[in-house]
Design a protein that fits this description.
By secondary structure, the protein is mostly helical. It has two domains: 135 residues, Helix Hairpins (Orthogonal Bundle); 165 residues, Four Helix Bundle (Hemerythrin (Met), subunit A) (Up-down Bundle), CATH 1.20.120. It contains nine helices and no strands.
């Protein structure tokens, strides 16, 4: 395929695709317009029938003497009703005509849009042909194309790393919320149960502490993974999420099974620290989601830039 032939076919395919895209946009508007006109036709039809009913009533029953005094001659009133009915008929017919025009336009646009798949396929095929020609015979343009491809690859990698960080952050958040539920449960024991003695009381406390210790270990691992994912995106970032606020509490509770009011205070400290950790993780997740949207916009722009560059490139012999 000659250089000029590639460009001319590509321009024709691009124009055709743009026409189809514009037809899609118009179709969305037409569907809404048809709904509105059909609604107006129903309303207008009701008004028209009401006016026709008034005409028939006057023709059938005449007019009362009181009605004559107020509105005048019977024939005059009948003519007035007929004129009002005629006006409603004209309005109704106008809406019917408008609906027919809209449906005719919709039919034409539907036909255009039905060829979108083939149009997109041809457009992509021609771009691929031009890209092959560039890489084979136009090294200067190919070098510029490669630079754009490198930028696209960077955006794709950033998207991947951001999504991994978001997944990891949600995992941390899930386990922090489980720890909060656990701490709240023990806090509801009350001082009496905290100070309770006996096999059952000790067993219950040890059971809680074993569960809490497991949470501490898992959360620490989740924090480490989250920090690694963040550092992939921001090499100098320090998560600074030391979990001493509940780890120290668990160690003390398990080692001594403390039975005075101090344990209640430690529970509150542990709970506050864990809640604070969830707030920080939520802020980080909000930052990551905003970053993901920015990367998405940048990536879209770079892909569009690449396509436009291929279309606009002049392939000199």
């Amino acid at each position: 395929m000659g250089v000029k032939n590639i460009d001319s076919q590509l321009k024709e395919a691009e124009d055709n695709l743009n026409m189809i895209i514009n037809a899609e946009r118009r179709l969305k508007i037409i569907d809404s317009e048809i709904d509105i006109v059909e609604h107006d036709i129903r309303v207008q039809g009701k008004r028209m029938n009401e006016e026709l009913g008034d005409v028939h009533e006057l023709e059938k029953n005449g007019i009362s003497s009181l009605f004559k005094k107020v509105l005048g001659d019977h024939e005059q009133q009948l003519e007035k009703e007929r004129q009002e009915y005629l006006q409603e008929v004209l309005s109704y017919n106008s809406l019917i005509d408008e609906l027919e025009v809209l449906k005719f336009e919709k039919k034409i646009l539907d036909k255009k849009v039905s060829g979108k798949r083939e149009a997109v396929g041809l457009y992509k095929l021609l771009i691929a042909d031009k890209e092959r020609t560039i890489k084979l015979s136009h090294p200067r343009i190919a070098d510029r194309l490669k630079k754009i491809d490198n930028l696209i690859a960077v955006s794709n990698q950033l998207t991947k790393e951001t999504e991994e960080a978001i997944t990891s952050g949600n995992d941390v958040l899930k386990h922090l919320n489980l720890m909060i539920e656990n701490l709240k449960y023990v806090k509801q024991w009350g001082l009496y149960r905290m100070q309770g003695k006996g096999r059952y009381s000790s067993y219950e406390k040890k059971g809680y502490v074993d569960k809490a210790r497991k949470f501490v270990g898992v959360i620490q691992v989740k924090f480490n993974i989250f920090e690694k994912e963040l550092q992939d995106l921001y090499p100098d970032y320090d998560l600074n999420m030391d979990n001493y606020h509940f780890k120290a509490f668990v160690d003390n509770f398990y080692d001594g099974l403390i039975t005075d009011w101090i344990i209640v205070k430690k529970l509150q400290v542990a709970l506050n620290g864990t809640v604070a950790a969830t707030h920080k993780v939520n802020r980080l997740l909000s930052m990551l989601l905003a970053e993901k949207e920015k990367i998405k916009v940048t990536l879209k722009g770079r892909i569009e830039e690449r396509t436009q560059f291929l279309i606009d490139s002049k392939l000199e012999k």
